[in-house]
């Protein structure tokens, strides 16, 4: 297994139009996000990266949403993903769409997102699955310099292991897009419905929803008390004979 951190700089795409079959990927991701948006509550939501900015969330109960990217015109804040300009525990939900695939240090990115996420906050992660038809197409020489094969693909179970280290509970995990997009969208939709259950392990993309769990470090004192051990009473040694002695 290759290490997650790399010294090679990977330029992340800032729009789905740069990714092969980007419109098809957005449509599938948007349907999953629309399903989970009404379940999110809070005051502030973070969308990290240009690909996350282009995913709409009109049904979300969190009205204040901040989009961070350098080139996407939908952004409202320009910042480094490894050094977000926010205090700790600022956001109730964070959407990180396909950012781990183009990140030189995914562990550091997840730690920074964890820093700005409130306790019991939600983290929504999406990415490409290397064990899929889309991942195998990256072995072709003419695809290696194109998105999404220009980045790296991590197994979804490996991403879930990283989240468990940060005390995140995975409440939902789904692999989808078994067959790549074709010109015949009706046939693709029919094949996807037929293969989604039996071949979900080789889905081209994954959608993970995790919740941050924080455990108190202060121990709880017991309500019961130990019985005191029996101790002998002190005996007064004064006698009447001693009382009658002259001064």
Automatic annotation (TrEMBL):
- InterPro entries, alphabetized: Methyltransf_11, SAM-dependent_MTases_sf
Pfam families per the UniProt record, alphabetical: Methyltransf_11
Asked if the keyword Transferase belongs to this entry, the reply reads yes
Which molecular function terms from Gene Ontology are attached? S-adenosylmethionine-dependent methyltransferase activity
Q: Which residues form a coiled coil?
A: none
Q: Which is a GO BP term held by this UniProt record?
A: methylation
Methyltransferase type domain ranges (all copies):
74-124
This protein's record includes keyword Cell membrane = no
The alphabetized UniProt keywords are: Methyltransferase, Transferase
- Protein name as it appears in the record: SAM-dependent methyltransferase
């Amino acid at each position: 297994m290759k290490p997650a951190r790399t010294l090679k700089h990977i330029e992340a795409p800032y729009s789905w139009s740069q990714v092969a079959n980007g419109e098809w990927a957005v449509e599938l991701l948007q349907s999953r996000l629309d399903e989970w948006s009404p379940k999110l509550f809070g005051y502030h939501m973070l969308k990290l990266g240009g690909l996350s900015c282009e995913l709409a969330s009109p049904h979300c109960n969190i009205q204040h949403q901040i989009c961070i990217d350098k080139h996407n015109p939908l952004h409202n804040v320009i910042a480094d993903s490894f050094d977000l300009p926010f205090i700790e525990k600022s956001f109730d939900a964070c959407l990180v769409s396909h950012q781990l695939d183009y990140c030189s240090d995914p562990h550091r990115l997840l730690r920074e997102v964890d820093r700005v996420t409130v306790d019991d906050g939600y983290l929504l992660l999406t990415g490409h699955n290397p064990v899929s038809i889309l991942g195998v197409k990256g072995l072709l020489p003419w695809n290696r310099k194109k998105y999404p094969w220009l980045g790296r693909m991590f197994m979804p179970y490996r991403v879930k292991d990283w989240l468990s280290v940060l005390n995140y509970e995975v409440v939902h995990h789904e692999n989808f897009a078994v067959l790549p997009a074709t010109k015949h969208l009706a046939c693709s939709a029919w094949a996807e419905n037929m293969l989604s259950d039996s071949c979900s392990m080789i889905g081209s993309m994954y959608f993970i929803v995790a919740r941050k769990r924080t455990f108190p470090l202060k121990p709880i004192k017991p309500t019961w008390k130990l019985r005191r051990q029996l101790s002998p009473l002190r005996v007064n040694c004064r006698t009447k004979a001693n009382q009658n002695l002259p001064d």
